Amino acid sequence: MTDFDYGPIEFYAIAFDGDRPGPAVLKAVDDLVASGTVMNLLDLVFARRSPEGEVEVLEMSDTIENDAHPALDLAGLAGEDDILALVDDLEPGRSAAILVVELLWAKAFASRLFEAGGAVIAREGVPAPIVNAFLAEYAD
Prior knowledge:
The chain contains five helices and four strands. By secondary structure, it is of the alpha+beta class. A four-stranded antiparallel β-sheet has the order 1-4-2-3, sandwiched between helices. The termini are far apart. This is DUF6325 family protein.
């Protein structure tokens, strides 16, 4: 059996009003990581776009008070090109948290696919608000 050290990873950019996300965001991430079944937080970076349109990447210590930093397995995994691509549509005066997460539920699945000679060649995500709006509109 092939056992991967890490499962599939995903990059998320989560936008917020103002120049930094609030503590509720970190609490939500911490809750999911603490469950140990959904995801493992590999990297976390913050960025903000000035009113003039310039993007600034922020260190966690510049955004999180009281040194309550979450543990990161692969800090630095999100490179500058990744960050800039993810915040390309970020509006001036807003900030974003860039999360790199390992999908723990998919780790065993990826191992089994690899053993069977298969590989995921495409993936498309649909954001939860769109799914729920669609279901609300077309529900019986």
